[in-house]
Amino acid sequence: MAGRGKSCGGAAEEAGGGSSADGSGSQLAPFSERYFLKLWAFGTSTDGLGRTELDFWLLTYDEFTALKREWERERGIKPPLTKEQQANLEAGRRHILEAQMRAHNQQREKMRASGLHAVELPERKEA
Hints:
By secondary structure, this protein is mainly α. It has helices spanning 33-44, 53-57, 61-74, 83-113. It is elongated and about 80 Å long.
């Protein structure tokens, strides 16, 4: 593979420490012993990338990221939404709710205009 020699082994270069390599999304301080232990465990575990220890530590950042994305794709793990995608989803949700409210209000106005009102049920008398 091109770029061998620059050992990275994980997402330590991401701002804020990135997410853990095991897909859990937990945040660990970059370059902490625990962070690298989790990277190593994910990279060498048979439930993770299944690489040999030497092969794992020789991975470049791009190689690790590509392998992790493939691992996630095979398991149906979707990448987290970007801020823009989250904003678009929220705007769409608000648009749908507003359209439903308008339709509901229009239906109520039609019922009032036609003289139809909600029927109230008589109170039940206790025996």
